[in-house]
Amino acid sequence: MWKWLHSYADPERAYNLSGKLLPWFAMLATALVGIGSVWGLAFAPTDYQQGDSYRIIFIHVPAASMSMAAYMAMASSAFIGLVWQIKSADWAAAAIAPIGAVITFIALITGATWGKPMWGTWWVWDARLTSELVLLFLYLGVIALYASFEDKVLAARAAGILAIVGVINIPIIKYSVEWWSSLHQPSTIRITEKSTMSTDMLYPLLINIAGFGLMIGAITLIRFRSEILARNGMRPWVRELAIAEGVK
Amino acid sequence: MQFDSLADFFNMGGYAFYVWLAYGVTFFSLGTLVISSLRQKRKVLNDIAKKIQREDRLKANRSN
Amino acid sequence: MKKGISFRQAFFTLLKRDLQIAIRHKGDIFNPLLFFILVVTLFPLGIGPEPQVLSRVAPGVIWVAALLASMLSLERLFKADYTDGSLEQMLLSPQPLPLMVLAKVLAHWILTGVPLILVAPLLAVLLHLEDNSYGALIATLALGTPVLSLLGAIGVALTVGLHKGGVLLSLLILPLYIPVLIFATTAIDAAGMNLPYSGHLAIIGAMLVGSLVLAPFAIGASLRVSTN
Description:
The complex is a heterotrimer.
Chain A: H1 2-7, H2 11-43, H3 57-84, H4 87-119, H5 127-148, H6 152-184, H7 199-231, H8 236-245
Chain B: H1 6-11, H2 16-63
Chain C: H1 7-24, H2 27-47, H3 51-74, H4 79-84, H5 86-92, H6 97-126, H7 134-159, H8 166-192, H9 198-226
């Protein structure tokens, strides 16, 4: 098992494997997000309380749930890279960070556009929104730290430490923010409870959650591949590839 | 189909602005991310190819 | 030479050295303190002199100013040692790195955290803080500022090798400061309303214990990356 895994730590094999996986991820992701969004936008029944504005849920909830999952994925690969010195894991972490930031940004924006018609305001200092905002800052910190080192081996280690420190802090931040908002907001606003959702609404939502997950996987593979190429510029196989596909 | 006509669909029961803003921002930023990620690979390969060309030119000059 | 020095000796030698250096450069102690005082005095000028408004925002203002002052002073924590090479000596020494790092952070807290705690009540007077809140203010600062120093030191250790550390540092560590800020200010608010606040203090205490145990290792690992 370990031997098998280690063979994929070799950059060339990792590059080729991710190249083989990419079309499947991309196709499935496009299909699922397409089906889920069209179903959600056009075919799911109108909510009797929120009218059609609730249709934002089909992208908001997937983005919000994936934003945390992407951070966990980034931190675990950073951990693997730090502890077992597997460089591919470092590159994977570096590939996920910008994607996670974009997903978190989407979750915030869709939350705001949903909040405006429902709560009458673009932003409330609600626990979920606030911790999502903090999560965005954590992502941006990791990205900025990774970008500011010239030596990318060091950059990956530094950003990895920061990501892991962030993981330890996320539950504390979440808890403190929840506690804080319940204290400052006695008449709090509730997002519709998920359990009361009819299956006609639930299926497109689940499809979109799966689709967003696969899409993050697909974009991670794309970025992971270019990260491998950039970090292995001196290897013969990369040079051959560059000569074949590079400048005309 | 939940809506009677296409105009109804775009109207989103009066919430058109918010719904389409949310979907627009989402797919725009995802699209930008995908395109920039794809371009990144091209750029990396171009940079390496240029570097190889430069090295080759240096080598050629030196052997003269 | 064979025996070397004990862990305790190493810890106190480093602590004493850092304190001595700082006492010789008095600016290191006074500049963050002045910054803290100035930021707090700016707030009444910005939001108006009404006592009710000021006493409502006083806990938050004092704590945010303390957060910024602590971050500002942290930037210098490892810088001098990094440039003159003594940090590398520290990394090479046989004593465990987390211990040495803890000594440095403790020295930093004594130099910047403690003066801040001493000045805070005076500033609280300027901001018309509720009379009941003074105890809570001191207690939260006493428990909270070491957490700030410990968490902040991780960010400083990560950025010490970089030339443009300043803005990056704030992006790295301010999000981590949020829990301390929340629990400290709500504790002061609760005290102002004559409510019990020992629970808040216990949580800040737990954060202090947690960061005392974990942060030195993270700081040590970060220093090893930065000095590579």
